[in-house]
Structure formats: C-alpha cells, structure tokens
C-alpha cells in the first residue's frame, strides 16, 4: 500500500497536474458525462484533442492576470496509453478535381493523428470506457509544435512574433485546423470500428451503411465539431460513392447537436475564404447542403426572401461567413439546450425560424454533474453523513437524496451537517492563509463567486456589493455586521480587456478592504488565483453562499451552481439557467432569488436601459461608483478604472445597475439568516435533499432515451474466471460515440 511505501495519498493528489483541456463548463460537462456513461454501462467514447498545453496557468502580479504556459505533460501522464497502431492521416489545403467518378480532393498537406487512450471506469461496476485524444504528428518531421498548443498560450511561446499583425488570422486558422483535425480523425475511427463490427458486414440487399445510424450516435458538443457534418458527407459521397440523398439521410440520423450559449459573439461564424483555403471540398459540400436547404424553405415560404436570408448557412454582408450553428441544426436530427429556460430561448428567440419549421427537433436536456467527483471525492465528510442516514445507494441514484427531508428537523443531524461544513471551512481557511498570507475568520460566511470572468456573469455586481459592505462598516463601525470572507476566482480570456480590468478592480478593492484596521476581521476579500477543477474541489465543500448572478437569459445552464447545492451551500441567484430548476426542486423560498426575470430584461430593452437613472436614485451605488471612478481604490492611477465606469454607464449589455438594489437587499436577507445557524442549516439540508435531479446520470439517461436510442445496461461483465458465454450478446445494440 501507499502507507507502506511511506507515501501520503493527499500529498500525491497535490502533485498530480490537472488535465486542463478546456475552458470552463463545456469541457467539464463532457468529463462528467463520460463518468455517467461508464457508470450507466453505455458503450460510449469521448473524443477530443490532446493539447500539449492546457488552459494557461493564471498568476496574479500586482493585481493583474498574467498568463503562463501550462506544460501539463512535463512529467508525463500515467493514465494515457499511446496507440500508434491506430494512427490516421488528416488532410488540409489542396484543391478539388471533378471527374466522371465524382469529386477528388488532391494536392493536400497531411498531418498524422496519433491517438492516446485514457480509461474511464464506471462507478463500482465492470465497465471501463475510453476517452481517445488525438495528438498531431508530422509525416516526416515538418514542424508541428504549434498544432498541439491551445489558443491561449501562443503569445507566451512566440513572444518574438508578438508584433506580427497576421497573428489574429493565424490564430483563427489554427483553431479551425484543430476543429477539423479532431473531426476527421474521429470519423475515420468510427467508420473503421463500424466496418469491423458484425453490423458493417455487406448484405446482399442493404448498403453497407444502412444500419449506420442504428449503430452510431454522434453528439456534437457545441458547434466546435460542426465540420463533422460535411466531413461525413464527403466520406459517404466522394469515398464510399453513396448517392447524395442516402448519404444525407444517414448523416442527419447520426448527428445531434447541443447548444451551449446564446451570446451572439460566442456563436462560431467561419469566413468562407478561410474554409475555401483550408478545406475546399468541405466548402463545396456546405454550399450544396445550403442550396438544398434553401430550396426546401423556398418551397414552403415562396417569396419570403428575408426568411431565406435569416435561415441560410451562409451569412452575406461584409465578409461571407458560415454560420456553424445553422449547419448543425440542418445536419442533425435533434437539437437541445442545456436547461429548461435556455432551451425555451433557443426555440423562441435564437433559432425561432428553425423551430417553427421542425418543432419536434428541439429538446431540453438539463445539465448535471457527477456525484462521484462532486460529492464523494471532494466532500467525504458530507457523503459519509448522508450514507449513515439513507444508505450508500444514492451515489448511483441521486434522486434518493429526497429521503433527507425526513431529517430536516433532526437536531443531531442538523448539528452534524453544520459540523462537516465547519471542518471543511477550517481546512480551506488554512489553505488560504498558507497561500495568501491573510488571516481568515473561519466562522465568517464564506461567500464564493468562482467561474470564468465575463461581463454577463457580473463579477462587477459582486464587487459593487463588496464596496457597499465596506462603506457600511466604515460609516458605522459599532453596528452589528455579519462577517464575510468573499472569495472570487476565475480566468479571463487573454484578449478580453474588460475581464482583465475586472480582475484588477477586484484585487484593488481587496487591497483596500483587507488593510483597513476599521474593518478588521469583519470583511475579507480574496481573489482566488488560477481557478481550476482541483481548486474547485477544495473551495466548493467549504462554501456557505454560492453566487449565481448572471443577467437573466444569459447563462445557458451553469453547473457550478449544482456543485454548490450538492455540497451544502445556499444560492443567491437570478432566475437564469439551471437556477430556475434548482428553485423549482427546492422551493423558491429555499434559495435567495432576486432581480429581473427574462421578461423584465426584455421590457427594459424595449424602453431603453438608462444606467444613469439608477446611479442618481441609489446613494450607496453612487458612492461605490464614485470611489471606483475617483481612484479611491487606485490612488497611484486615479483614472485606472475609467473604462469600467464608462462601460457601466454607457454600454452595459448586462445591466448591472438595474439589479444592484435587489441584489444588495437580498444579501441583507442572507446575512440575517446566517445569524441563525440552525435555520440556515435546515435550509442547507432542504437544498441537498433537492439536488438529486442535477446528477449527470439523470441527464445521460435522457440523452440515451430521447436522442441516442440506447438502453443503459446494468449487466455485469463476468470476471476472468467465469465462463464468457454467460453474458454474450446481451449488450445493448447501438453505440453512443
């Protein structure tokens, strides 16, 4: 054992690098989904890119974010196994020749895709699935260093190229190369596996590929793998020589698309010129798909030119662009949002023309999180306490948490839940004191706001609340104040100026607050450096108050919200994303819901949002904004934050001032409840008891039932010493790829 080797498990865990192959919720969701698919016994594969450098490591220097390369493979990765025997070629550039036998893509540059397999074990069953990540290799030894590198770190590695003005275009081209790379390698792999199976065998009557959609389901995680649609068509039409209509029918039945955002700037739109240069045949196929699509629309809505323009896969005007979301909708048999409210917005606003045409295509699949990582692994104290009350089965069937409702008035249980939280807080406080050299009061309310830094997530509103609390303490130092440790963390995209200014502002405010003797231990502010999964596992179990305060209608779902709920934090939040369903499950009275609803935001847009009005009418808001504006928090550079203030007054798409008053009043209710430890803990228990819906097991069962048409299998594989025929051929038909 480790103990006999003189090793400490916790020390070992600290040494292991995070595989930071993603940026926030979308990548983490995929990881939870892999865990659930294996736990449910689904034959599923996760495919992606083996980035050599993950998301940057964030350092805070003088209050500013500085990006550092994340060389996560420095010491090797013990979980992966290279599979050179499955290496595949991927083609780029070149030109298209049209001949009697059809189209040929020729004179291409080849990059090799080398797969690395990582096992994905199910929880306490005999399933081990595979995550296959592709690494780019040069055929001879053409320099490919850049290819396996994520977007972010380019600048760090190529400081000398910083003045190169084509860097932006090169960055875009690299991103599209990566997207096609993962798609082309994965589809070859899927088709190879299909042909090798008994289903792929040629029948005298059927085409080889007739059964393809019955055996293969491909879920597109946002539009990033959208090129899979024209790529599968290229394989079927150009290589396998299927007729277009047959190929298109199979393609549509194979793909399903999950939308993850409604922010227009986040929707992928690739310039036609770039696609024509990089993937000339795919552009032709996309044009053909679009032509047939628009012909169909025109037949249903004659003379409706505006509808054709809105629904086209190609956006005219300025540089022609391909709307990848439109490509995904047209090329898939199912489209889903990731929370009820988001799926409603997808149907009625973002893609309303498509939903009007095929309402049955649009679905909801509310996101979830794996309780294995987000409870058992990160919060063993709470997991054990729950198991003592309701048994251990809840780990595989989280809906059983409702049984905890029976113990909401059990004084001993209430005390034990509070004790586990307190222990988690003390442990995290020690971590913070070690890392940040700030004295933390572990009996203060741990108020936590961790997620990517973005204007729509409104870290600025939290910041204004911090300043407001600070001003209240200074105005009346003798008055009772419920002590808080406010923890904000998250990374800003390297090119996102406003997000970087927000980080600097939070750190500037923290510096003033933390060093004011009048404030003392009543209020502390910490910006959590380099927020990542391993840090989330530490902070979430120690949290009292979870901040989920996006402008209604902007956060597609959120999953951090669910993690906090499951770990005994209360939520202050808007009616946005999955918060709506959390309130529905727990009862709205057991969350601190405040602020505008989607309808109110729309109403405010109609009449015109006037930030100045709120500033004029709310003295505490005025004081806080004036302090930021005047340099109270940046005395050496009084106009450091003028861009931020200017944005808040003149182009705040996310209406921070409009929700400020409701937010501050709601925070007063939070503080009031926190004074009554027993009432607070009872509310915590009601929340944990209502968190069952938010297991990714439930989410995956819904995908399996409604989109992939596969059955979860609880069948145990026989142990090596048992006869194999015992379970032969009882695995479900169908593969979720």
TrEMBL record:
Its EC number is 2.4.1.1. CDD domains: GT35_Glycogen_Phosphorylase. It catalyses: [(1->4)-alpha-D-glucosyl](n) + phosphate = [(1->4)-alpha-D-glucosyl](n-1) + alpha-D-glucose 1-phosphate. GO terms for molecular function: glycogen phosphorylase activity; pyridoxal phosphate binding. Keywords: Allosteric enzyme, Carbohydrate metabolism, Glycogen metabolism, Glycosyltransferase, Phosphoprotein, Pyridoxal phosphate, Transferase. Gene3D superfamilies: Glycogen Phosphorylase B. It comes from the Eukaryota. Residues 718-737 are annotated as: Disordered. Pfam families: Phosphorylase. The modification N6-(pyridoxal phosphate)lysine is found at residue 563. Residues 722-731 have a biased composition (Basic and acidic residues). Its cofactor is pyridoxal 5'-phosphate. GO terms for biological process: glycogen catabolic process. GO terms for cellular component: cytoplasm. NCBIfam families: P_ylase. Homodimer; enzymatically active. Interacts with PPP1R3B; recruits the phosphatase PP1 which dephosphorylates and inactivates PYGL/glycogen phosphorylase. Allosteric enzyme that catalyzes the rate-limiting step in glycogen catabolism, the phosphorolytic cleavage of glycogen to produce glucose-1-phosphate, and plays a central role in maintaining cellular and organismal glucose homeostasis. Belongs to the glycogen phosphorylase family. This is Alpha-1,4 glucan phosphorylase. It comes from Cepphus grylle (Black guillemot). The gene is Pygl.
